[in-house]
Design brief:
157 residues, alpha+beta, 21% helix, globular
Length: 157
């Protein structure tokens, strides 16, 4: 072998030898996920992961959200899923939504895309600052000018 080939081979062996191995459960869960589309309404969850009608539960940190599907099935979102920040806005929670997500064991969803459903049509939901032309998927001030970002909905084409 050439000297360069040996160096490359040694680098690969060292990388593999020092890489953390995934626990067996992690690999199993990855195989058990599937892409799903769920329509329904976002609900706040109490500390026992049960749907709550109390806005008080939505004000608690960390926020716990779930999705009550049109068929009544309850899904929950991971508290670490940053895409759920949009659900802090009660205007978003009040709408019928269609969520494209990965479904994990125990009915846990990981959000891929959120759409509002109005008169059977899908709308992209996002926040926008018209001063800075910045789009975000969480309510709050613009990261540039600090003005409050505007909730927008545009038909999906």
């Amino acid at each position: 072998m050439k000297r360069v080939d040996r160096s490359l081979l040694l680098a690969i062996i060292c990388t593999l030898a020092t890489s953390p191995l995934l626990p067996a459960g992690t690999v199993k869960n990855v195989r058990e996920t599937k892409a799903v589309v769920v329509r329904g309404h976002v609900v706040c969850l109490d500390s026992t992961s049960q749907a709550s009608n109390s806005e008080k539960d939505c004000a608690k940190l960390p926020h716990l959200f779930g999705m009550r599907a049109s068929d009544g099935q309850l899904f929950r979102f991971s508290p670490t899923d940053s895409a759920t920040a949009m659900f802090e806005d009660s205007r978003v929670r009040a709408q019928q939504l269609q969520i494209n997500a990965l479904l994990y064991p125990e009915n846990q969803l990981e959000i891929i895309k959120v759409h509002a459903v109005k008169a059977g049509k899908l709308y992209d939901v996002y926040y926008y600052c018209d001063v800075c032309s910045i789009t975000a998927y969480a309510p709050g001030p613009c990261p540039c000018c600090r003005r409050e970002m505007e909730l927008r909905e545009e038909p999906v084409h």
